Sequence to fold (218 residues):
Amino acid sequence: MRFIVNKLLLIGSLGLMLGACSTATDTEGRSGNAPEETTVAAINETEEPEERSIVANEITKTFYPEVTKLRSLTEKDLEWYDIIMTRLNAIDDYSGDRETVYEIAEEHNEDPEDLWFRWLEIVEAKWHGDIGDYAVLGEDLDKLFSEIIEKNIVGKDVERIDGRYKLPDDEENLTTSGNWNLDVDGESYEIGFVIEHKDDFNIAELIELSIDGENIDF
Fold:
């Protein structure tokens, strides 16, 4: 009878030992996998999203803007420039330019509408005459900028917010440079550019382009 009891105790002890071993093995297995899973999770969490490029895969560099032949100024044109500019300079914000020219025309028995359009041509020739007989002016310059953006910046919704630019100084430096602030699909970007003018301004060549200060290779 004592033998049977001892045998039962032995069997019970073996069962407890096997159970303990099984538990230890399971625990070791789980603890062995845990660091690997944590590492993978950490790597996934630190992966940075791929940077989005708003620049077209192929840069369009050559454009053909509308060009204006500048007025050849006469002595009378220069007289009108001095008369009208003196009057306008007396108005701080240049408000009422057209009305002022109309007043001057009536004072000199000139047709107001004729003098107004002559005045616009005189101003363009005075301000751009140092770079030659041709120039890209006003709305045509704005169309050129819009076309450069349309061809080279990609996005569902591209909006030009504002910008500044510097026109050519003389015949030796026929480049227009500047910066635009764009909104592309809700994100703000600053676009820098340099345009070289050729063939009496009939060709505009994009020679530099940058996004937020980083030059684009092309």
Q: What stands out?
A: The chain has a mean pLDDT of 82. The helical segments are 2-46, 75-89, 97-107, 112-128, 138-152.
